[in-house]
Amino acid sequence: MTELPAGTVTFLFTDVEGSTKLLHELGAERYAQALAEHRRIVREACAVCGGVEVDTQGDAFFLAFPTAQGALRAAHRIGDGLQPGRIRLRMGLHTGTPLLTEEGYVGEDVHFAARIAASAHGGQVVLSQATRDLLDDQLTDLGEHRLKDIEQAVAIFQLGDETFPPLKTISNTNLPRPASSFVGRERELTEVLARIEQGARLLTLTGPGGSGKTRLALEAAATLVPEYRAGVFWVGLAALRDPALVTEQIAQTLGAKDGLAEHIGERELCLLLDNLEQVIEAAPDVSAILASCPNLTLLVTSRELLRVQGSRSSASAPGSSPPWTSRSSAPASTRSRSRSSSPQLARGRSPRPRSSSGSPSASTSSREDATPTRASRRCAPRSSGRTTSSQKRSGASSVRSPSSRAAARRRRPKTSQGPSSTRCSLWWRRACSASRTGATGCSRRSAS
Questions:
Q1: C-alpha–C-alpha distance, residues 19 and 372, integer Å
Q2: 180-194, 236-250, 424-438, range with greatest mean pLDDT
Q3: Do 139 and 196 belong together in one domain?
Q4: Best CA proximity match to 157, nearest among 173, 175, 168, 145
Q5: Least buried of 174, 264, 322, 332, by fewest C-beta within 10 Å?
Q6: What's residue 392's pLDDT?
Q7: Range of the domain at 244
Q8: How far apart are CA 34 and CA 29, in angstroms?
Q9: Distance separating alpha carbons of residues 376 and 408, to the nearest angstrom
Q10: Residue 203, domain member (yes or no)
């Protein structure tokens, strides 16, 4: 038996994709012939490139190479040798320093290499970050992924630029599964996703309790999972009361041990901070983390408006069911994958919702924003009462959503178009006058 390489070793795991299905399609005899040819090609490539066959089980091989370059050349030769046959191999490479014993290799590197290979598809060669760092070849970055029994998310690369289905890894997210279905709010979801696509890195959904902020945010975050290489993560803040614990909670969710901003760095990451109103004083700390991490996006739900520098308010989509207000903060350099921009957002203005007739909706006029009704103030999102100097300069304000205006109408006395409208308004004036003078017993019948 050839002596196994020691020290820094690159492992190559191979496995036949869909072997059971292929057995049924080819039949036992033809499948045995194809499998024997596959084994010949793998062993020949291993020997030519300086590798050693550590183990084989069924149609899977475990090979070891003293160099990463030799392992990659072997993967090339194996892939080329199997073309255009029916057998398609998934292959994975990882470099480490395992313990070498009389029985073979022992250590986490062996299991890690096997997990890397298992995530690939037939015809695909994937590599770990440790192997990629030792190579000069052109590789495709597949982003960070979570593997079974591996604590941290890991970066995975692909040999070549061929398109394959998503890797078979654990979803790189911890988003909770909603108990209710998402019905009737597609327009709001579209607007939230559009604002993030346009470059918003801080998007806050505000509104009273029970208006559906969390459900909408979860649906948007779930849609965004494929867009962020480092994943999308939910951070629940409802149980917190100390603002100083917010960054610690985020760090615990992400597994950050050496500083939150340092851990995130330039990772393309999206965080959903749920119920920030419980610890709204932590908003400046959250904003500071956002400023330190150029590829971080924050999706926030809160009953209170965030008072952070550079934020600007925008109206929700006309016809949205629960009241919510989005506030976005996009620095001068937005994320590189933003493919479009909104001229109105770029000038710091909110897009003006239009009524069904096509004319601008009167509900978003500046006059109404300046003089909200008592009912609208009751339905509007809570404000902490803290106003920063940047907000005073920018004059940012919240725009009521259509549903909050509907709530205001429900609190007003009903009037109708016709002969009785005069009597209704007269009754209303008398009732208000009576409440100021202390009179009692006002009724509609008094107006007749």
A1: 68
A2: 236-250
A3: no
A4: 145
A5: 332
A6: 37
A7: 186-353+373-406
A8: 9
A9: 6
A10: yes
